[in-house]
Amino acid sequence: MTDLPIDPIAIDVGKLLNKTVTSLYSHLVTRPTGRAVRMAIATQLQSAGEQSLSLIDLSEVVIIDFSCADEVVAKLLQEYQDNEVHDAFFVFRGVHEPHRDQIEVVLVRQGLAAVVETDPGNFQLLGVHSDREDRVWGVLEARGMLAIDEIDSVFDDLEDRKTLESLVHRGLAFRSLISGRIHSLSRLVEHLM
Fold first, then answer.
1. What are the residue boundaries of the structural domains of the chain, listed by start?
2. How do strand 182-184 and strand 122-127 relate by DSSP bridges?
3. Are residues 186 and 179 in contact, defined by beta-carbon separation less than 8 angstroms?
4. pTM
5. Who contacts 122 (Cβ-Cβ below 8 Å, separation ≥6)?
6. From first to last of its 193 residues, what are the pLDDT tens digits of the chain?
């Protein structure tokens, strides 16, 4: 039996945008456009089962405004954060300077955080997170995975262990229901890149 009961899926927002709104340009600049893209992503997730891990690729999106960042990133995270039917995890790829500020503003406004790839292989937390969360997440990111019996030795401080649990709860790290191992999201989607 495999440790991970889910297979990550890649969703190219640039291609999805072109199919969804029949635009020649990869611009996410109106709330209805963002809503249409979010709904198309949600449709793909419906066939993913009880748990899903998605790499949302924004690399081909030239412009994203605040309303689309709210629809495609913040509302997507909100919809699945405490969803009792579907447990979804997201990594947002291709979050470059033209997107970063808009995405960060909507995440902060909604009290959310997300794992983003800003450059190939460079992952970070964006949005609302503490220095401790950033540090604990960084340790997990560097290791890729923590087995249950490693957690106490890697994080000898009780607050760090609580923070690791919080990262899992917030969808910023993944715990296997089979082994109990905690995985960094970036390692789980690396074969999709």
1. 9-192
2. unpaired
3. no
4. 0.88
5. none
6. 356 656 678 888 877 766 655 454 566 667 888 888 888 888 888 777 777 888 999 988 878 889 989 998 999 999 888 776 678 899 999 998 878 999 999 999 999 999 999 999 999 999 999 999 999 999 999 999 999 999 999 999 999 999 999 999 999 999 988 889 999 999 988 866 5
